[in-house]
Amino acid sequence: MADATMTLSADTASGASGAVDLRAQYVESGVKEVLDELDRELIGLKPVKQRIRETAALLLVERARRSLGLAHETPTLHMSFSGNPGTGKTTVALRMANLLHRLGYIRKGHLVSVTRDDLVGQYIGHTAPKTKEILKKAMGGVLFIDEAYYLHRQENERDYGQEAIEILLQVMENQRDDLVVILAGYGDRMDKFFESNPGFRSRIAHHIDFPDYSSDELLRIAETMLTRQNYNFDEPGRTIMADYIEHRRRQPHFANARSIRNALDRARLRHANRLFEASNGPTDSTALSTITAEDIRGSRVFARSTGKEKVP
Amino acid sequence: MRITQGAFSFLPDLTDDQITRQVQYCIDNGWAVSLEFTDDPHPRNTYWDMWAHPMFDNPDAAALMMELRECRKVYGDRYIRLVAFDNSHGWESVKLSFLVNRPAEEPGFHLARQEGEGRVVRYTTSAYATDRPAGQRYG
């Protein structure tokens, strides 16, 4: 680092300060803040955080190089997030938009989240204006395409999705300064999508895999979600929630944190019902905000799993 | 003859970079920006053809610049102007408008004098370009 600074200052004879304090820039640009927030507020996702940290470092260095006239091209920032449902892809995309904005790679830092329906039209000539409309809305920010593989329908050659893909690729290539595209979806289907659209693979620099949460992490997520809504578990409630997670993840259509959120919503429903039916006289705030074992045990997840054990 | 219509028209033509910054100013003020084009430059010709839709919800000027590039590809031989419309109550009108493209050659206007009763003379102007049918003016 010291050597590099020396040679740099020798090269830039124009009088501009030839050294960059990366550490200071890291703090000043607010990148540190975003990364710390990411660490604090998102549970688990170790490899993702690691990748984001690395990407941030790369971009910071790139920016420093640019300020010294060593780099001119905007680096390719398009990304792909692959992982199972409910693993935090959208949340991380939002943080990523913020991060890129702080680093000055995008001008506005907003996130436009779309799916196939928003890009692809219903009839001939409908797709191009629709896709362009979305692209224009996303300019200066990040375009997040959820379940991107639906854009490509292998079984139908004349599907309008292909048209949307072509426009996307063109803008991704020609207007790299104006917007960043993040594609997201389940891992295996994304791989297949990239195989049939090599244009995308080559234009995307960062592939980030989102792992499933462990049961332990899911329990912590459940607790954070409740705290945010001013609820909490009592001790038996907590134990049975852990039990619930174990059961739920073995069932089909398990969507990680999203399943947890739905389960909590239903638990709150049962909680409200229980209070309402048992109420005679005043109810205190502890009762109003404590989710007990009873509220969670009412879930059909338990009903089904005991039933299944009887059948075979 | 160089047409002077709208803002900045006595300045040298704005570069794309300058246009971008003007557009960003408009957007930051909450005005809807759009593009209009014509091949009839008469000052009383207020209603130009609109290119695509007005852009109400694009936070960044790059979106308009993309449309401008497209528009120049198709109508690069005509006048194109940017229109910034303020839809806030009480205004509901254009706040800023300036030319962003002009034909390579601008033949200018013909001044016709009509002699009326007595010694009255009526004046009218018409663009040389409009002698030809729409779509075939300017090369």
TrEMBL record, chain B:
<dbReference type="InterPro" id="IPR024681">
    <property type="entry name" value="RuBisCO_ssu"/>
</dbReference>
<protein>
    <recommendedName>
        <fullName>Ribulose bisphosphate carboxylase small subunit</fullName>
    </recommendedName>
</protein>
<dbReference type="GO" id="GO:0016984">
    <property type="term" value="F:ribulose-bisphosphate carboxylase activity"/>
</dbReference>
<keyword id="KW-0113">Calvin cycle</keyword>
<keyword id="KW-0120">Carbon dioxide fixation</keyword>
<feature type="domain" description="Ribulose bisphosphate carboxylase small subunit">
    <location>
        <begin position="4"/>
        <end position="103"/>
    </location>
</feature>
<dbReference type="Pfam" id="PF00101">
    <property type="entry name" value="RuBisCO_small"/>
</dbReference>
<comment type="function">
    <text>RuBisCO catalyzes two reactions: the carboxylation of D-ribulose 1,5-bisphosphate, the primary event in carbon dioxide fixation, as well as the oxidative fragmentation of the pentose substrate. Both reactions occur simultaneously and in competition at the same active site. Although the small subunit is not catalytic it is essential for maximal activity.</text>
</comment>
<comment type="similarity">
    <text>Belongs to the RuBisCO small chain family.</text>
</comment>
<comment type="subunit">
    <text>Heterohexadecamer of 8 large and 8 small subunits.</text>
</comment>
<keyword id="KW-0456">Lyase</keyword>
<dbReference type="InterPro" id="IPR000894">
    <property type="entry name" value="RuBisCO_ssu_dom"/>
</dbReference>
<dbReference type="InterPro" id="IPR036385">
    <property type="entry name" value="RuBisCO_ssu_sf"/>
</dbReference>
